[in-house]
Design a protein that fits this description.
single chain, 15 helices, seven-stranded mixed sheet, alpha/beta, globular, six-stranded mixed sheet
């Protein structure tokens, strides 16, 4: 492609572009072609990055918030100017339809914009003196927790970087990033723009790695890394949580989901079907908050299923670089195999394929609607992470809530109703960190809103002041007037 972006291929360590002893290929999931060979970092690169982050921490910590804000604002301006190359990079390396990638490029930049302003406003508080000690003054300070290590997923190669790194940088914390091995090019492009923005050496570093274990072991076991942030599977999150506990790091984890979408009998069927389809099939079903279970009240299930199936059948599968493509490839063979196995398991146990249910060549899988599904099938019990929508029925509000909460996960849940009382009752009863009422995308373009889950879906929050708090320590200074 003549307009293909030009990517850095080395690691960005201590403000320099460094080669590693090995490289690994980044492949286009739509075509299978190798896009680039990038540095495969390990323990040596991790130690260099660690020492650089530790060395620069005092100066970045003491850099006035207004100056940190100025650098971040320049980074935002460059990201905005380079939005199209960022979008194309995401689509090429992980298969997201280009229209969605353009939206993510803006969403990613919005976190830098938001936290650039926050950097100016990190202050403190003066508390009243305790009654027996009128000569005292209690000062509350907010200070950066220290160097941070972030591990980001492939499904949002830009936004997951800035959602973690921007609040860290605003707070005064140097940030070391290990991007997903499927999508390191976007992260390296963001590092290049950080360098162009005048970011100090060692404050933001990007270390691609095919095997994250040697690199992560260095950073997680070292007590000088004071914060770990990870987005990925629950199983890996548990391992990292246990490892970070050995040095009592601050930890935030955004893990797996099993999102239900409850459609009640009073729903506008046409609108509800469109909202569920958008929530389910965005990014080819490969987001942590995608609808995974469509639960419909029995009275309207036939009408909803028909409308939803018609919308699903009309989705265009194809080259994600084309403007009209709605469903791209799965990110890799492992993701494709999981989707295929989930459908085969459901059909073997009695589910019916209403739409799709077939491979389309390569890593493409047809958007699929399954009916007659029940507990014990992978499509209901596990996170499919692909374009497969199982539709099941419920009788009443109580059963709907029980089915929705009948999982260890608690990231996102949805409902559609025109009953205001039901909207409050059900949203309050759902055990999820994000709840969309008549809204299949509750976190869209909202860097100021909290994002995170309950139960097996993680700990901590990203976005807004809650995301900034994850990188700040609270210090009390008690001052006696003499």
């Amino acid at each position: 492609m003549s307009d293909r972006p030009s990517w850095p291929r080395q690691a960005f360590v201590a403000g320099e572009w460094r080669s590693a002893a090995r490289t690994f290929p980044v492949r286009n999931p739509a075509t299978g072609e190798t896009l680039a060979e990038v540095a495969d970092c390990g323990a040596d690169e991790a130690r260099r990055a660690l020492e650089s982050a530790v060395e620069v921490f005092p100066s970045w910590k003491n850099t006035p918030g207004a100056e940190r804000s100025r650098i971040m604002r320049k980074w935002f301006d460059l990201m905005t100017a380079q939005a199209e190359p960022i979008a194309k990079t995401m689509t090429l390396e992980m298969g997201k339809p280009i229209l969605e990638s353009r939206g993510e490029a803006k969403y990613a930049a919005s976190f830098v914009d938001y936290y650039a302003e926050s950097a100016r406003r990190i202050g403190g508080e003066l508390l009243p003196a305790p009654a027996p000690f009128p000569h005292k003054r209690l000062l509350v300070r907010y200070e950066p927790v220290g160097p941070a290590y972030g591990i980001t997923p492939w499904n949002f190669p830009a936004a997951m970087v800035t959602r973690k790194a921007a609040p860290a940088l605003a707070a005064g914390c140097p940030f070391i990033l290990k991007p997903a091995e499927q999508s390191p090019l976007t992260a390296l492009l963001l590092a290049q723009l950080w360098e162009q923005a005048g970011g100090p050496k060692g404050v933001f570093q990007v270390l691609p790695a095919l095997d994250p274990v040697p690199l992560s072991q260095v950073l997680i076991t070292d007590p000088r890394i004071r914060k770990l942030t990870f987005t990925g599977s629950t199983d890996v999150g548990r391992l990292l949580y246990a490892q970070a506990a050995q040095t009592l790091k601050r930890v935030s984890l955004e893990l797996g989901g099993n999102a239900p979408f409850l459609v009640f009998e009073d729903a506008d069927i046409a609108k509800a079907a469109k909202e569920v389809a958008f929530s389910k099939f965005r990014n080819t079903g490969q987001t942590c908050i995608c609808t995974n279970r469509v639960l419909v009240q029995e009275e309207v299930r036939p009408r909803f299923t028909e409308a939803f199936s018609d919308l699903t059948a009309a989705l265009k599968v194809g080259d994600p670089m084309l403007e009209d493509t709605q469903i791209g490839p799965l990110v890799d063979q492992q993701g494709f195999a999981k989707v295929k196995a989930a459908v085969e398991d459901a059909v073997a146990k009695g589910a019916k394929v209403r739409v799709g249910g077939e491979a389309r060549g390569g890593l493409f899988y047809a958007p699929t609607v399954l009916t007659d599904v029940r507990r014990g099938m992978k499509v209901l019990d596990e996170e499919t992470f692909g374009p497969v929508a199982p539709v099941a029925a419920f009788r009443d509000e109580a059963e709907a809530i029980a089915l929705a909460n009948g999982t260890g996960y608690g990231l996102a849940g949805y409902l559609w109703t025109r009953d205001l009382g039901r909207a409050f009752r059900v949203s309050e009863a759902l055990e999820y960190g994000l709840v969309g009422v008549n809204d299949g995308l509750p976190s869209a373009m909202a860097p100021h809103a909290p994002f995170g889950g309950m139960k097996d879906s993680g700990v901590g929050r990203e976005g807004g002041p809650w995301g900034l708090d994850e990188y700040l320590e609270v210090k009390l200074v008690s001052l006696g007037l003499v």
